[in-house]
Amino acid sequence: MSILVIVVYNRLANLKHWLHCLTLCDPMPVVVIHNSNEPAPEYEAVCKDVTYIRRPNVGYDIGAFQDVCKNRLQGFPEWERLLWVTDDTFPMCTNF
Question: What 8-state DSSP symbol labels residue 15?
Answer without folding.
Answer: H
